[in-house]
Amino acid sequence: MSSSVFVVGSARSGTTLLYHILLASGEFAVYDAETWLLEKGQSRYRKLRSTASRQEFVKDWIDSGQFERSGLSAQDYLAEIENSNMSVAELLAHFMGMIARSQGKPRWAEKTPSHVYHMKEIKARVPAAKFIHIIRDGRSVAASLRKIGWSARSADSLAQLAWAAQSWAHAFAHGRKAARGMAGDCLEVKYEDMVTDLSGTLSRINDFLGTSVTEQDVQNSAFGALGKSNTAFGDQKTGLHQDALTRWRTELTPEENCMLTALIGPTLRELGYEIPQEDCSVPLSLRWRIMWWKIVCPIAFGVRRFLKNQTPLGRYLTKGYEEFPRSA
């Protein structure tokens, strides 16, 4: 039985829905927020390598909305970590473990999608950790990211879509590469399988984690995304619904679909996603932009992550916890 589970993947891929399905079992502690601990601790707080950076991190963390949502006593938390030399990953596991103990639960699951980039480090520091890597059709992900403005800072809607699609492919590649070295401690789950074959998906998850989540648990739960809409498109349907499966067909123009086929088609095929066979000729005026995005986007993502995580610039490229509001 695994007591520590990390739900990771590209943003807007269904990590929240999967997390709430796990919570429906009643076996997991409830912490309905993203910690961002690895994303921030590794960069903003310089991997806690100095006393000053560790003190700054602890102060900002205690004062943050993320900590407040845990329901933990700041005094109790400080007493447990005082004088410790835990890494960021170990602090994350310890924090989640404290929440589980305070709620009397045997397990916890942490859901920060971008921790897909930190799987190897988490596994090295938390050997018992297991990962569920949620994957969704990159066209639907890109459409959603553009809709809510989590894409390129550009007024060009095609550029926004292209950067969003490439970020999806980048996150997927990191997750799959990390999973190869984990000897069965990472399970890939498709969002589409959760919707179309919940029973089969739950069976795989239960076998992987040693849990006993049932369809009835999921159907009876109104927690989070199972009880309210989490879509960017305003249809207000809750939980698992078929309309979300091919969002790209209704939200994207034929030209945009052709562009995404050219950009991320190989990854879509690798994952077994349908690519329409109808004519998909890309206008000549768009071809050079596609070539540019294919080259520049992966380089830009890699350079930014390097600067954030491996250089002093990370402090300035990453918001601190004090810049995020406390919960209402």
Written overview of the protein:
The chain is α/β, with parallel strands linked by helices and 328 residues long. It has one domain (4-323): 3-Layer(aba) Sandwich (Rossmann fold), CATH 3.40.50. Helices cover 53% and strands 6% of the residues. The protein contains 16 helices and 4 strands. Strands 2-1-3-4 form a 4-stranded parallel beta sheet, with helices on both faces. It is globular and about 65 Å long.
Separation, N- and C-terminal Cα atoms: 35 Å
Written as H for each helix and E for each strand, in order along the chain, the element string is EHHHHHHEHEHHEHHHHHHH
**Helix fraction?**
40-55%
Strand content: 5-15%
Q: Can you tag this structure with a few keywords?
A:
328 residues, globular, Rossmann fold, 16 helices, disordered C terminus, alpha/beta, single chain, four-stranded parallel beta sheet
